[in-house]
Design goal:
heterodimer; A: about 160 residues; alpha+beta; Ubiquitin-like (UB roll); DNA polymerase, domain 1; 2 domains; 5-stranded mixed beta sheet; 5 helices; B: about 750 residues; Aldehyde Oxidoreductase, domain 4; Aldehyde Oxidoreductase, domain 3; 4 domains; 6-stranded mixed beta sheet; 20 helices; about 25% strand
Chain lengths: ~160, ~750
């Protein structure tokens, strides 16, 4: 099969790649561009470990084709920190020990960033439902919810 | 050097604090490399062909068409993994499970594998492999598999552990028995007896990271394996044996691990990837899909358990008995035996008997899942204990306190307990405000206890002091949930330096001596013991170097708070030398300074927990919500309390999923109906409340800091605590896990119809 030429923007940088028509955005990010921060936990959109933001919309990159990225603005975990300055969510996840194994963490951070951008003062229930598309098997979510609450407070004060 | 592991009752400056983990930034920035995040030059993509049948003879496999497909570099079957197990039955089962030899024994059993230039070519190649199966009758249910007419899975299995060797083969590989006293006499003394039967369904560990590895075998016999595993030294041992490689020539590097919970203690894909690489002459990356993880890794047992407990009017248990049947998948296991050992471990019993039956079924080979086998046994026993308390008319907490095991109690599985935490966790629960919080309509509260042995095992650790005075700690136990932080704290504590001066890593198999798996809650227990030992050895060297620098006898040099101190009036003018000052001179005083330790970490202290749970059940739909949850558990000494809390919360959450939702559902055709996270639903954020924790610290006398393992016990009580809560909410005893809405509605209906 002939490859599809794609021109897109990832974490603010212009990127061009060739991909197969049936290749997912997740495969392109991981296997063609070396952006392995997004993880494949299921490949069916059930676990959220591959979460990225496409044109301000939270998506599972395993359910998006690489070819669909043409002309879009994509944000991945690799672009979340500014230089050596961690995003408040990243900092609060560390401080609250909101990760154990850490495989779900990039997806949770991207989903939480999207949540707080749309709702800067979420209630606990809104956080829990806002992050219900991301599976974590280690933490029981307690420390994740607390980290997001704390980050929301810091970001409001900033 | 002799190492004294006994608890010393010392005070702590680093241990017990909550610093950030050393691997944290990598994990919040996406830089941490897990199993599937590693690549090698010239790497191929491996894929596995799996049986669609639960039980079938493999008559013929024709790989010729797949081999001819452009881009395919290797195709393997069981012929490419010859039997090198030399009579080791356990290893032969492992080999057969990696790649079916004569029969496919479950839906998902590997029968062939390919390595190709890309994933699409590999998928196409699988479709070109022709397998001729003769489908056989199958059995997946534990009780059905024990029937005489059940399809026989392995005709070489004759039940072990019976008084007389059976004349016919069966699906029961072993019978085991534990206990002491005379239960018949005990039941005769009882005023009340409760006898109940329970079932639990098969669940999966549900780690978010599928199994993944990159294997590279060279023509000179050297090989590399990058893999997500709980034990890279054990994987090296098993892979080398199955592939006929020399152990020292196979270097295994454990990647960051995206969850294991016992499920990454067994090899499945790794020998296959190595065999593919050997045949193709190129590195091969093999990553399981989620479907493959569910169908063909190692879930826990489904069980069927009968429990009988008798007590006097005053609440003293006079006898306790249980029969436990656990599925092992299609190979012999020892899962029912562990259930039989743990079932009554919380209690002080004069007359106790447990019998376990290991049952073969056409399901994937059972693997460990966090305190393996204990949660199901605890579900049955703790449900019956609650029932008995109700019949006697005594508070369930008081009933358990009255019968709780103590220091000096002979455990139902044999040993005599040292200082233990079951009584203290129960007393803490009794006093906990959660127990007095009001409940609304359709809500119920339950509590239950749990036990886990904990394990120590072989451990090797290196501690190297850099010339700038910072410390590199190389451990061989895989970090599954923050142990690099805990072990850095321990090194800092023992050396008397700041946590920030220590950096812990997990070393590969060629850089450190053998270590057992991170299993049995041993990671922090055993590696902290080895770290303390290594640090003490390094301190000995530091004292010698200081003595040299001062030109005095080493006997006059003590180590205090990170400094060498000259002792005695004659050295009164010498002051102190910091670790950093001594390290800076190391090139002139004898070279690098290091401490090494290799030991068997004996004396893992047993662990107990008691949980409290409130639920609300919707009587219309049968749907259950956990509305409040409290974990009380003994940690011995919490090295990094935040990560101890995390273990408590995570185990409780897994238990909640097990109790209410999760189960393997097999169709009549023996195929798994729900091999994905959509239909095998683990708890999501909106399903759970905050999970409160209370850490008790009853020091383990066999560890210098009093540490006990903390990782597993937290999954033991939830099944029973939630079942007791649901039963209290709906007024019907729930005896089948998971308590999914249809089961709750059926129980309510049965009660109404009386």
């Amino acid at each position: 099969m002939a490859g599809v030429a794609v021109s897109t923007t990832i974490n603010g940088d212009h990127v061009e790649y060739l991909c197969q028509p049936d290749e997912t955005l997740l495969d392109v990010l991981r296997d063609r561009l070396g952006l392995t921060g997004a993880k494949e936990g299921c490949g069916t959109g059930d676990c959220g470990a591959c979460s990225v933001i496409v044109d301000n919309r939270l998506v599972c990159s395993c359910l998006v084709l690489g070819a669909e990225a043409e002309g879009r603005q994509i944000e991945t975990i690799e672009g979340m920190a500014h230089g050596d300055q961690l995003h408040p969510l990243q900092q609060k996840f560390l401080e609250h020990a909101a990760l154990q194994c850490g495989i779900c963490t990039p997806g949770f951070l991207i989903a939480a960033k999207d949540l707080l951008e749309k709702n800067p003062s979420p209630t606990e229930e809104e956080i829990r439902f806002g992050l219900a598309g991301n599976l974590c098997r280690c933490t029981g979510y307690d420390k994740i919810v607390r980290a997001v609450q704390d980050a929301a407070n810091v970001m409001k004060g900033a | 050097m002799n190492f004294d592991p006994r608890y010393s009752g010392r005070s702590f400056s680093s241990v017990g604090t909550r610093p950030l983990r050393p691997d944290g930034v990598d994990k919040v920035t996406g830089r941490a490399r897990y199993g599937a995040d590693f690549n090698m030059a010239g790497q191929l993509v491996g894929r596995v062909l799996r049986s669609p049948h639960a039980h079938a003879i493999i008559k013929k496999i024709d790989t010729s068409k797949a081999e001819k497909l452009a881009g395919v570099k290797a195709v393997i079957t069981a012929k490419d993994l010859p039997d090198l197990t030399d009579g080791d039955a356990g290893m032969f089962d492992t080999l057969d499970n990696c790649m079916a030899r004569k029969k496919a024994l479950y839906d998902g059993h590997a029968v062939a594998a390919v390595a190709a230039i890309d994933a699409r070519t590999a998928r196409q190649a699988l479709k070109l492999i022709e397998v001729d199966y003769e489908v056989l009758p199958h059995v997946t249910d534990v009780d059905e598999a024990m029937q005489h007419h059940a399809p026989l899975i392995n005709d070489a299995i004759f039940t072990e552990g019976l008084e007389e060797k059976p004349v016919k083969p069966s699906n029961v590989s072993k019978r085991t028995q534990y206990g002491h006293g005379d239960v018949h006499q005990g039941f005769a003394q009882a005023d009340f007896v409760v006898e109940r039967s329970f079932k639990t369904e098969q669940t999966h560990q549900g780690y978010i990271e599928p199994h993944a590895c990159v294997a590279s075998v060279n023509p000179d016999g050297t090989a590399d394996l990058w893999v997500c595993t709980q034990g890279h030294f054990v994987y090296r041992q098993h892979c080398a044996q199955l592939l006929g490689l020399e152990v020292s020539k196979l270097r295994v590097t454990s990647s960051e691990i995206g969850g294991g919970f016992g499920g990454k203690t067994h090899v499945w894909a790794e020998p296959v990837a190595l065999a593919l690489s050997r045949k193709a002459g190129r590195p091969v990356k093999l990553v399981m899909t989620r479907d493959e993880v569910f169908r063909a890794s190692g879930p826990t047992s489904a069980t069927s358990i009968d429990v009988k407990i008798g007590a006097r009017k005053d609440g003293t248990i006079t006898a306790a008995e249980a029969t436990l049947r656990y599925t092992c998948g299609p190979y012999a296991g020892m899962w029912a035996e562990i259930g039989a050992m743990t079932a009554f471990a919380c209690y002080k019993l004069e007359n106790v008997k447990t019998v376990g039956y290991e049952v073969l079924v056409n399901r994937p080979k059972t693997a460990a899942y966090r305190a393996p086998s204990a949660p199901m046994a605890a579900f049955a026993v703790e449900s019956a204990v609650d029932e008995l308390a109700k019949e006697i008319g005594i508070d369930p907490v008081e009933f358990r306190i009255k019968n709780a095991a103590q220091e000096g109690t002979r455990a139902s599985y044999g040993p005599v307990y040292g200082p233990i935490g079951i009584g203290p966790t129960l007393e803490a629960v009794k006093e906990h405000p959660h127990m007095r919080a009001p409940l609304a309509q359709n809500q119920g509260r339950g509590m239950a206890c749990g036990f886990w042995f904990n394990f120590g095992g072989q451990t090797c650790t290196d501690l190297n002091i850099g010339m700038d005075g910072t410390v590199s700690l190389a451990v061989g136990t895989v970090d599954v949930g923050g142990s690099r932080a805990s072990l850095s704290l321990v090194a800092a504590e023992e050396l008397g330096i700041d946590y920030s001066q220590v950096k812990a890593i997990v070393a590969d198999t060629s850089s450190l001596g053998y270590n057992d798996m991170t299993d049995g809650s041993r990671g922090t227990f055993s590696s902290s013991m080895a770290t303390i030992s290594a640090a003490r050895n390094a301190i000995k060297v530091l004292r010698e170097r200081a003595a040299q620098m001062w030109d005095i006898s080493v006997d006059d040099v003590a180590w205090e708070k990170g400094h060498a101190v000259a002792k005695g009036e004659k050295h009164g003018n010498l002051g102190k030398l910091s670790l950093k000052e001594i390290a800076a001179q190391s090139g002139k005083t004898g070279g690098p300074i290091a401490g090494h330790s290799e030991l068997v970490a004996d004396g893992a202290g047993v662990s107990f927990a008691t949980h409290i749970c409130d639920v609300e059940v919707d009587p219309e739909t049968g749907s259950t919500r956990v509305i409040r949850y409290t974990v009380v558990q003994d940690a011995g000494k919490a090295v990094h309390p935040t990560y101890v809390e995390g273990q408590y919360q995570g185990g409780a959450a897994q238990g909640i999923g097990w109790a209410l939702n999760e189960e393997y559902i097999y169709g009549k055709d023996g195929r798994l109906q729900n091999p994905g996270f959509l239909d095998y639903r683990i708890p999501v954020c909106s399903d759970l409340p905050m999970i409160d924790t209370q850490i008790l610290e009853i020091p383990n006398p066999n560890h210098p800091y009093g540490v006990r393992g903390v990782g597993e016990t937290s999954i033991v009580p939830p099944l029973a605590a939630i079942a007791n809560a649901v039963s209290n909410a709906v007024g019907v005893r729930m005896s089948h896990i998971p308590m999914s809405p249809p089961r709750i509605l059926a129980a309510l209906e049965a009660e109404r119809e009386g």
